[in-house]
Specification:
Layout (H helix, E strand, L loop, with lengths): L2 E6 L6 H11 L4 E6 L25 E5 L2 E2 L13 E5 L2 E2 L5 H7 L6 E6 L11 E5 L5 E6 L5 E9 L5 E6 L2 E7 L6 E4 L6 H5 L9 H13 L5 E4 L1 H10 L13 E7 L5 H7 L6 E7 L11 H5 L3 E6 L5 H13 L5 E6 L6 H10 L10 E4 L15
Parallel strand pairs: 1-2, 2-3, 3-5, 4-6, 5-7, 7-9, 8-10, 9-11, 10-12, 11-13, 13-14, 14-15, 15-16, 16-17, 17-18, 18-19
Length: 383
């Protein structure tokens, strides 16, 4: 059997477990079970995947939503298993369950672990360890329902190339041996979201949290393409007052969204990116800003700047654009977009005339274009 796929909004039918067991017994290669909603989830157990799945010689991919998995009662052996997606899956309170499964997958390449439900029964495992020599693509999405310092994530994957890290749940985050990392999408508040909403931003007394953020940045510092969400930028802006941004020596493309309250982080961050070539900047702010420091990448490497401006062109927007035009020695192209409106040719010329006449790079082309897609996902995030 090549493929078994079951998808339904609700299922409390015991026969599903039998169907899964039969599919595994018949040598299924691709197994997909998606249950979007289970009635009375706190009182009714979802259908569970059979233990036989841990000893399959044929299984290549597993896609599970809203079902249960048991702690393996045997040594996991999945010699052909390459891809796994588990979402809102119920399991025993065993901190090693995911690690044990991964350890038996010698050719695993793609892994996605997602937890979006607020049911405590689906959030039992408080420690996630992802250790794999072959993993190339990893997506984690944990929404913050019950987070805290007692939730931890550890990622040790020397072959990992693409990672989407969206974890608002874990207070302890460890990443190491990410020597092959090519692209990363970061959308995390490092479990500081609730504190910030209550008006208590990161402070000097938060030494353990400051170290966690620093070690995370250090662990991904070899990446080449990075997307950073606005919420993460906010946390990093606070962090920069107490901790340093490590060097991202290999980073050539940065996608980030700033506001007038976080724009001061931009020069600090760019200073840590000496070889940056492309900057995609989403900016939403109208308060006065001061950008005076000229960092190394502007002088020697930055070639393309794309700016999405969320407000009409004003002094703030002009200052931001001119900062790059006046200080980027090898800039080839600067694209500017005002989100939410289209300019006539005459209006485009008026805007261009407001910009500095003293471009440092004479070959730089300035254009006002359609919206630049800032939040494009890395290739790894499309699985």
């Amino acid at each position: 059997m090549q493929t078994f796929k079951f998808q339904n909004e609700k299922c409390n039918d015991d026969r599903l477990e039998e169907w899964i067991e039969t599919a595994v017994a018949r040598g299924v290669q691709h197994l997909s079970v998606q249950i979007e909603e289970i009635e009375d989830i706190e009182e009714v157990d979802p259908p569970y995947v059979t233990q036989e799945i841990y000893r399959s010689n044929t299984l290549v991919s597993l896609y599970l939503i809203g079902v249960g998995i048991e702690t393996p009662d045997c040594v996991v052996s999945l010699p052909r298993f390459k891809a796994m997606h588990i979402e809102d899956v119920q399991h025993d309170d065993d901190p090693l369950i995911v690690e044990n499964i991964i350890s038996g997958c010698p050719v695993l390449e793609v892994l996605a672990i997602i937890r979006t439900t607020e049911s405590e029964s689906l959030s039992a495992v408080k420690s996630l360890r992802v250790r794999s020599q072959t993993l190339r693509s990893f997506k984690i999405l944990f929404e913050n329902w019950f987070g805290g310092m007692h939730y931890a994530v550890e990622i040790d994957a020397p072959s990992l190339e693409y990672m989407s890290f969206r974890d608002d749940n874990s207070g302890v985050i460890v990443v190491k041996n990410l020597t092959s990392l090519y692209a990363i999408h970061i959308d995390t508040e490092f479990n500081l979201g609730f504190a910030n909403y209550d008006g208590n931003p990161l402070g000097p007394k938060d030494s353990s949290k400051i170290k966690t953020i620093h070690d995370f940045l250090e662990g991904i510092s070899g990446v080449r393409h990075m997307f950073i969400s606005p919420s993460t930028i906010e946390i990093l802006s606070q962090y920069s007052e107490f901790g340093s941004i490590p060097k991202f020596a290999n980073l050539y493309r940065l996608n980030a969204e700033f506001s007038s309250s976080t724009i001061q982080l931009l020069p600090i961050f760019l200073e840590s990116c000496p070889n940056l070539k492309e900057l995609l900047l989403d900016y939403g702010g109208s308060k006065p800003i001061e950008l005076s420091y000229v960092h190394r990448c502007l002088i020697s490497t930055l070639e393309f700047v794309y700016i999405n401006q969320h407000f009409p062109m004003d002094k703030t927007g002009i200052k931001l654009v001119n900062y790059f035009l006046e200080n980027s020695a090898v800039l080839k192209e600067l694209k500017l977009n005002f989100c939410g409106r289209t300019f006539t040719n005459k209006e485009q010329e008026i805007c261009k005339n407001l910009l500095t006449p003293t471009k440092l790079s004479r070959r730089c082309q300035v254009s006002i274009k359609e919206p630049v897609i800032i939040q494009e996902h890395c290739r790894a995030l499309k699985y």
